[in-house]
Amino acid sequence: MLVMNKPKTATEYETVQIGAALLARALFKELGVASAIDRSIASQPEVEATYGHLLQAVILNRLTFDPQPLYRMSEWAAQHGIDDLLGIDAAWLDDDRLGAALDAIATHQIEIWVAILKRARQRFKLPLEELHGDTTSIYFEGEFDQTNVKPGQIERVPHLCIGYNKDGQRDKKQMVLSLLCAGRVPVWFSPWDGDRNDSGVCLHDLKELRRRLLLPENALMIGDSKVCQRETMLELCRHNWRFLAPHPWTPTAKAAWRETWEKIEGGLLTWRLLDYLSQNEARKATEKQAKYRACEPPYRLDDQQFKTSYQLRWLFVHSSRGAESAAKQREKALVAGLAALSRLSGLVGKYHYRKRETITKRVDRDLAKAKASAYFKYTLTGTEGERDWRLQWERDQAAIAEEIKFDGISDRLHQKPGRVTPDLVAQSKAHRRTDALDHDRSAGGDVARISSPSSALGQHPLDQTRAAGTVQWRASRH
After folding, report:
1. Helix 95-106 and helix 109-124: axis angle, to 10°?
2. What is the largest CA-CA distance in the chain?
């Protein structure tokens, strides 16, 4: 924790907590934040500081765990010594002036961002070989007036409205923010209306970034499952842009894995071990650590519009930990399903279980509750008049054997020559965790991936921002 002695009189000092503001101020200077803002706008406030200088205080506040509304920014800056740190008068940070500053930079977002980004690349040798794309939802509380602004009326100024919120805040107005990050450093962002879905977002951001910054020819984009939509994949392949993303267990993906499984069983394809351990697994004894192995059969993506095709490869990864977990869940469901069937077999023909429809509905409900519907086949014989109902069942061995094929399996797809590295497998796991996909237990309960790899990113001086997950900002400007 950093503190600063703030002069009170000639002989008195007041100690204030400034947190990481001192470090951030140095970073602002290295990135040229204030100058980038000031170069983009024509007018300046009638005080002895520029908008770029004043807005640094707003940025500092947003980086704390105590974000303040604009009308309290002056008080907050004085309380924590930010005014002395930045060489400004705290009174200059009134909400009217800061509101005018935000309005002034709203139409110059790209110009300001590109200037800062180019400076970051030059000063910190920012690596751009691998880019992570994702979105987050940001919800707002408080009163705000949008009656004079229609959705899409002002470029890059989102319309706040109710949409899918990744943090479960269903009744909050929100905006959607998409990011492309190099490691954890954001290199591009786009604000979207609150009801925007993720389709095409990563591709849009990649195009915008490439228009303004020279990226390495072999740059790899790691995204979520929306990257695997057919039109998005075709567009990426047409530009020869590499990508890695989760793919849902569609019928195509399931069929590809079944074919691959048969070839592995027949000796036509083989697994290769992956030298990968998560941080949690690395803490365990060697014999208890999860083992990963991969297989990469080919996949052809046909482009009917340009009458060509692109050679991709599935990357199927088997996790021993995932397989063990799937087997345990299945055994638990089998035990629960058997118990439910045994109990119901003693009730048929009695009490409320006298009609076929009533009995079958209850059997189906209890099997579903036990998560065992896929594992049992049952028959109900007898008549309502005689009340001689008899419930019989057996395990559906074919369905169980089919599911076992998918235990611990996740899949991806890539177009790169050579093999995918364990580091890229690890990076794509983050998108699997944040992807809004339901587990399909009939297909192994995982998601598929599409990819085209490169080398893994390490730690970096600018590695301060997370690329995925949900942020909650409370807008308090009045």
Report:
1. 80
2. 103
319, 281 in Cβ contact below 8 A?
Answer: no
Closest residue by Cα to residue 320 from 293, 290, 286, 282: 290
CB–CB of 233/144 below 8 Å?
A: no
Please provide residue 359's backbone torsions phi and psi, each rounded to the nearest 5 degrees. -65, -45
pLDDT (tens digit per residue) in 7-30: 655 667 778 888 889 999 999 999
Cβ count near 252 (within 10 Å): 12
**CB of 433 within 8 A of CB of 242?**
no
Angle between helices 33-40 and 51-62 (to 10 degrees): 130
Tens digit of each residue's pLDDT (9 = 90 or more) over 131-147: 999 999 999 887 777 77
Q: Quote the pTM value.
A: 0.76
